């Protein structure tokens, strides 16, 4: 086919992935959504991306853009005769300006590389997620990635000042502005942030940087209830003037599963508590944070908001506390597939959500265990359900769909989100179509049709 | 005409403005852009707004939405047979949730009322602009207002979590989510934020709240150059871990014009300096900020970044320093119309921008005086030019267009913005059409056509 040959000519031999090397691109790490593609190409520049898209537009060939292939909803996996376009060769740091607190980078740079480059310039790029070693800037933008520092620094959306993208007709939207204020028309970049590659391909971005914090304090506290955890968040933020960068809730079962399945982990506190909160505070002030935190914890103990707490005394203790939090997913894997949800509600609604969802799960699957954890400072709960103890990894297989539907019903009743940070992709496309309002779906379709009338950008995903 | 009668029926007698009372709606405060409208209505609810828009859609009648009528670019003024739809009767605070740090309010609430309501709930709504006593929430959203606290808290865009809007077909987009994470499709609210009413009418919003700061320090420093001011910003942020909430640059002439035209003002420092920086720092920590600031100032003095500085010792001194900053526009008014610009560049480019723009102005209008000031922490410069001393208020009238064009050329050369915070409206519509890239204009038009195919929403503005 002449179009494929023309694309080959654009990228040259270095830019084409041979079929023997295709597997890592066509399957995501857990093996769900095995993919197929007419061709896999890795262009080396924005111009090459534009030429490829133009050829595809002229021949009505669909394209699936791919970053680090770490997405959790299959948005990066093609399912037929699409061209898979990987950004992995585009990994330049175009410019770092400490005086402007900005960094301009190619879409294929990994998040860890971006963090490292910022640090070398004595600045912080605060986004932090589990896959940061391999996920790419273009991917975190297209999925509006969240992670553990959203409470203080926001989602990816809040960290992007400018954008370069190739539109579905092959034109280059060149808007790499390094500006913090620009009111000259619709903020077009917002459509690509969280757009999951359905409106174009992000090729570069200007990212916000921050001063490095001078002091950091990590605390793990045991609390009696989710309600106390939410009250503790408000109390801690008020007492420290919003110094919390992370505020992670873990139900006791999270600790149990980590201790059971992950070697070299230990119970963070002497006694068992119904819930634990892992908090990280940071400040640019050189002194005072630690004593503020100690005062705050003493006050919280006195008010009964916490039952016990430990402050990490060194980096090893900090890492050991975070290791528990980061091992929860693996701990859950040890119990089987279950039903998993990445949902959000208003932070103040978290206790009521947990109660209502828990009751719904108990009705559908008596004995099933709810493993709830997450970034409750942002209202984001990873609400996972695994089968009863000893029921085996497939105990919930026949109930998964019903449990998901029931949990989403509860989420809808709180005007929450059925996908707080992982996105829609293939995985939740049908669910979204059922649960989003007709007015919102109508607006989304109108925008998609206006910018990608032939539907060549990442078909079958999100919309 | 039956359509107008139908609209009257929707709003009732209380919702219609008689022609005797029309003047304050049809003219903005400086008397530019005198307006005309077929009818002025003030609906009392979102449902009434939706009914009115539906009638207008059915009869192809255009609508200009209006908030507090404080906009500086004429976006809120109709120019012919539009219906002027004022949100002023919709001013409910629907809900304040301190535990969730959110507030849900009607579009017609004034900014000052929103700030006050947040404070009563022991929270901060940080947006602060000169017109806050009369501008409305719907207006600040539609114009993505900025102001003096953007450095720390962002523009309006960063403060909106959820939105309710009436679309050009009369449908209600009901997305009053109180969520900090929601990755379920295109972030539709972004189109209305800064959309200047061209895609629909904002009727309510969920706003982000913050803990109240515990300590605040205000400093005025004299510096030798804009370059030193930019270096000082970076130094101060690094030394205090980003504690600056405001960082305002003022060229010496700003002080001179304030002293000349505004009674009861005084020189902030003993000697004259080429530039002044007004800085405000705040912290949630109960102690330590003042001593950090003192250390920082001592270091800045030693490095030669500042020549002198005064720390406000009480609220009266703080107010007196801010009064200078807030009186600059009035001081400039005392010198005549001149040519005024609300532009932004990367903060690090400010010194070079001032040099290059200054040279361009000097070529076009020898003797003209450049009065530059602004929020340089955000790269935002209010770059005003007045005639030579004693030349009278109309000295620059015949050169205004040429000066504006030259300043915008310089802005373009820095990839800056010709409207940092005031927006486009009527005033800069033609300029935008000339200076924005064809790709961006094309995307904007495609979105406008997709959502408002008959062009009834705020015609003649922005796009």
TrEMBL record, chains A, B:
FAD-binding PCMH-type domain sequence ranges: 33-212
GO biological process annotation, one example: respiratory electron transport chain
Domain of life of the source: Bacteria
Classification via InterPro entries: FAD-bd_oxidored_4_C, FAD-bd_PCMH, FAD-bd_PCMH-like_sf, FAD-bd_PCMH_sub1, FAD-bd_PCMH_sub2, FAD-linked_Oxase-like_C, FAD-oxidored/transferase_4, Oxid_FAD_bind_N
Keyword Flavoprotein applies: yes
One Pfam family matching this protein: FAD_binding_4
Keyword Flavoprotein included in the entry's annotation: yes
Signal peptide residue numbers: none
Keyword tags: FAD, Flavoprotein
Cofactor(s), names only, from the UniProt record: FAD
GO MF annotation terms: catalytic activity; FAD binding
Assigned protein family: Belongs to the FAD-binding oxidoreductase/transferase type 4 family.
Protein name as it appears in the record: FAD-binding oxidoreductase
Species of provenance: Hyphococcus flavus
Lineage: Bacteria, Pseudomonadati, Pseudomonadota, Alphaproteobacteria, Parvularculales
């Amino acid at each position: 086919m002449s179009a494929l040959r023309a694309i080959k000519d654009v990228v040259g031999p270095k830019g084409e992935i041979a079929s023997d090397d295709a597997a890592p691109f066509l399957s995501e790490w857990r093996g769900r959504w095995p993919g197929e593609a007419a061709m896999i190409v890795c262009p080396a520049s924005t111009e090459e991306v534009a030429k490829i898209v133009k050829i595809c537009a002229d021949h009505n060939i669909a394209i699936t853009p791919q970053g680090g292939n770490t997405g959790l909803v299959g948005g990066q996996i093609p399912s037929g005769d699409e061209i898979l376009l990987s950004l992995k060769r585009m990994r330049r740091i175009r410019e770092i300006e400490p005086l402007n607190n900005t960094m301009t980078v190619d879409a294929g740079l990994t998040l860890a590389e971006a963090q490292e480059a910022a640090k070398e310039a004595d600045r912080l790029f605060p986004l932090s997620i589990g896959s940061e070693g391999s996920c790419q800037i273009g991917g975190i933008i297209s999925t509006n990635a969240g992670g553990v520092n959203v409470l203080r620094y926001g989602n990816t959306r809040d960290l992007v000042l400018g954008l370069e993208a190739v539109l579905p007709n092959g034109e280059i939207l060149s808007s790499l502005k390094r500006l913090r204020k620009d009111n000259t028309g619709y903020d077009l970049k917002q459509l690509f942030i969280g757009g999951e590659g359905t409106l174009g391909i992000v090729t570069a971005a200007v990212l916000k940087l921050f001063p490095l914090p001078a002091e950091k304090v990590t605390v793990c506290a045991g609390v009696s209830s989710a309600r106390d955890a939410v009250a503790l968040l408000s109390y801690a933020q008020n007492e420290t003037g919003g110094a919390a960068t992370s505020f992670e809730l873990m139900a006791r079962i999270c600790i149990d599963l980590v201790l059971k399945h992950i070697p070299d982990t230990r119970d963070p506190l002497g006694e068992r508590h119904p819930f634990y909160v892992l908090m990280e505070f940071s400040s640019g002030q050189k002194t005072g944070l630690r004593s503020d935190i100690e005062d705050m914890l003493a006050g919280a103990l006195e008010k009964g908001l916490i039952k016990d707490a430990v402050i990490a005394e060194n980096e090893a203790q900090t890492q050991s506390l975070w290791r528990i939090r980061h091992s929860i997913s693996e701990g859950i894997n040890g119990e089987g597939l279950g039903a998993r949800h990445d949902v959000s509600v208003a932070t103040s609604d978290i206790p009521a959500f947990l109660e209502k969802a828990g009751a719904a799960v108990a009705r559908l699957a008596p004995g099933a265990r709810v493993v709830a954890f997450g970034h409750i400072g942002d209202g984001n709960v990873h609400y996972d359900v695994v089968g009863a103890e000893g029921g085996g990894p497939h105990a919930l297989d026949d109930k998964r769909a019903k449990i998901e539907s029931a949990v989403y019903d509860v989420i809808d009743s709180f005007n929450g989100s059925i996908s707080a940070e992982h996105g829609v992709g293939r995985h939740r496309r049908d669910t979204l179509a059922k649960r989003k309002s007709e007015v919102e779906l109508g607006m989304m379709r109108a925008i998609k049709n206006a910018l990608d009338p032939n539907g060549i950008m990442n078909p079958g995903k999100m919309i």
